[in-house]
């Protein structure tokens, strides 16, 4: 008697078959004929595969309790069967997003590579340095045409080493973040000047485009800009950066970007001068970012899903099992 399937109305569906023990006439070794059912103790391969498919998006402990299967048995089935599926996902993607996420915040990190077209995590490697990124790029393949990352310098060096011909696009969010973080550092002055305003309200009003604010909020912003010269300079610089990012053509983007650098280079505001220096050092990458339709937003959303997977599993003893789970839980479910 072996378990072959499961029905919500009938429960486990058993098969009663006669297992044949045969002897090879040449080597005289005995073997079992399982009728290609993939017998393993008291279950068939079809039963194990159907139970494993029900684990996607759910905790293993919950599935084990629902189908009356030992947790360790279900865990072994899951990671043995899904290891091959994870390898099948590693293909030559044309557009790749690369970002880091925390295995243990402040201690251990890992680098994840994601297919920008399908949203599937292709490969994960423990570490956060140039060698780790190179290992990820070598594992995925050499056919990547576009690589989207944040502004980390070690990622740029790794891409230049492994994929020198690929287009390196920086995430637009991080370009805006340069300015919003500088504005946030100035909020201490605003809090002292207007103590009845909350810091989050101030950050929101200064980071959102003026056309998206109400008339009352626009009045508050005008008052704050008149009180502090540095805040005023950073605010206008942020709006100029947004204007540059709205460019549609390469010539237009280059002209606006050059005007931005020329206007704010060697500015008396130290924060603006440092940001412009960063733009100048990564001139080609920032220029490609302006005209590229791709961003790292899908990767940032996947990072939130990774956090959910870690919380749902209450921690993982084996990091490789966590990486398999992440690869299987992300992207299109048509893969199954």
TrEMBL record:
Signal peptide as annotated in the record: none
Pfam families: DDE_Tnp_ISL3
Domain called Transposase IS204/IS1001/IS1096/IS1165 DDE: residue spans: 96-326
Domain of life, per lineage: Bacteria
PANTHER family linked to this entry: TRANSPOSASE FOR INSERTION SEQUENCE ELEMENT IS1557 (PTHR33498:SF1)
Full protein name: Transposase
Organism: Jeotgalibacillus alimentarius
